């Protein structure tokens, strides 16, 4: 049996030095993380006989990934963001925090600062009126006893008929398909929007380039993202994934979970359309959210993940 160079005391202490262990400046937390990253990277290189060409290909890949702003997309596609959900579920269980609507990944396409509206919002700018199906989305935000929560913030965002998100897709108007809706006295939120299409990774981008090498597609089912929050309740990051989508259980980002499937109904009834103030075929989707009580103020807030246009 040959000794692994990456296991030797010399190499381990070399990486401790590279991680700043021999100085008192900087961040002890980052040093602890970095030494582990370096040591594990060295082990992978040695154990898998990574060639120099493979190593420099990976370095170049990271440069291209970052240049295209796709790092958040890749971590979703490789299941790491879903892993964080599973880890947080397990942590919750250990702490006895249970119940309510399941969490699922935020994804990389949230934009802070969407318009705030009371009770009811029109989310689309009308630019896809010719091709989109109108969607009426509504529901109640409840506590674990089933009591409605008035004044909850339902911060929701979704893609257009092409599977693209405003801000990242510069052809869309500002905050198209993004709103913050405050629930009414009965805990209800209502949105008139359009039925979204599923997202697909840019076929020419670095994330899809990696997925190609793994023999995988980069498609998501049609879905709607939510941040749900209310004073005294635990922040919820989740999504509704639409039941009729062929990618429902074949999501490249692994966000679909039991309890988060939206049963969208398509209605072809002129009288029903007229009573909604529209013409033609439309869709209805009802979805309620249940929030846990916040056992400490910090649990009322979303993660501090850096986000587009986030100022605080
Ligand atoms: C999306 O719309 C999304 O929700 C995720 C998780 C990744 C890429 C695009
Ligand atoms: Fe999305």
From TrEMBL:
EC number of this enzyme: 1.13.11.1
GO biological processes: beta-ketoadipate pathway; catechol-containing compound catabolic process
Catalytic activity from the UniProt record: catechol + O2 = cis,cis-muconate + 2 H(+)
Pathway: Aromatic compound metabolism; beta-ketoadipate pathway; 5-oxo-4,5-dihydro-2-furylacetate from catechol: step 1/3
Gene Ontology molecular function: catechol 1,2-dioxygenase activity; ferric iron binding
UniProt keywords, alphabetically: Aromatic hydrocarbons catabolism, Dioxygenase, Iron, Metal-binding, Oxidoreductase
Entry annotated with the keyword Iron: yes
Listed cofactors: Fe(3+)
Family affiliation: Belongs to the intradiol ring-cleavage dioxygenase family.
Protein name per its UniProtKB record: catechol 1,2-dioxygenase
Biological source species: Pseudomonas duriflava
